Amino acid sequence: MIPTATEAARRIADGDLTAEAYLRACLDHVAAREPAVRAFAAIDTGAALRSARGLDAGLARGPLHGIPFAVKDVIDTADLPTGMGSSIWKGHRPQVDAACVALSRAAGGVMLGKTVTAELAYVSPGATTNPHDAAHTPGGSSSGSAAAVAAGMVPLALGTQTGGSVLRPASFCGVVGLKPSFGAIPRPGMKLMADSLDTIGLMARTVEDAALFLAVLTADPPEPLPDIPAPRIGLCRTALWELAQPAAREAVEDAARRLEAAGATLRDVSLPPDFAGLTEARVTINDHEIARALADEWTNHREGLSERLAATVEKGRAIPRTAYAAAQGAAEFARARFPDAMAGCDALLTLGAAGEAPEGLASTGDSRFQGLWTLLHGPAIGLPTHRGPKGLPVGVQLVAPRHADRRLLAVARWAMDRLGSPFA
To answer: Residue 359 gets which letter from DSSP?
Structure first.
């Protein structure tokens, strides 16, 4: 496996590794794994090598100096197409990079390629397979980003989440997935589908790598995460608990037992009863906003939309403004109450996904286990801590209130140091 991003950045800074050598190690994994995994929608090896050589010949550019990264194909790049997994947008060539891509390059990152997305970051999957078993879905819609990191083809990748599109593929593929606080990573240059939900997130192999990448994308100093000697963790089963596979529930409960034994203060946390209705509120908001975001595609290119996406647009167009406003009101009320609901806890521990990745590539899986936390606008991080009965990854999830991103990352690092990953 290639070195982690933080390890490689340190070795490049020390002169023990070159950006070109690190990139070539990634490209060796691309050559070996991409034919089966199919994580990339577009890749330009020559441009990436020229970028790495330029970094080796020049002064240090920033915290990502010489570190390759990949970009979900709903995020604009000036030098590669942004096709968005859609026949309507096939061959689309933006003139400038999205803000998150520009920030990554300015920090010395080497853009390796565009990763496969479900159609317009919704539910109709692309060609990507699960790196652990090609007969199973990698999740979605950030399927290629999760698979590329899991297969060792790149240490970092950008994704997006409207419901569960970062956290679910991270759990299915066995990588760290971070959906930061809503708006933490600037969205200019991203194809917006549900404006009040869409969040740019990232995939990484370790919590430290995720923290490094997030610091670059939020223009924060890349400082070490604070030490938390004994975090306070709330075990939150939510109203969806019984809908998860036994392996997913067992992963959460096993993690809770082990973290408590390691010194964490653990207690059960129940969300207010009316939070159970937020799953449906998120769907109402999602469908109403998607219907309006795709106004041109619906009016002028309807034949290019999949049946599933067209059905969502049609459903969203029929949602009254009053129902949408009520759903938004419920979401805003819940966001205000959430910090009190988890008072006394540094983070909540909950289900990462429904369980192991389902067999087949026709579906990307159930997004409900992440959608609640997306709606609440706080940070959520998926940790690759367990295997299921088929040997596939089963992750757990830690969540916190909005803007508590660094504290959540610190708790996540503490937890991973004690739980470990079977996919490291």
So the answer is: B
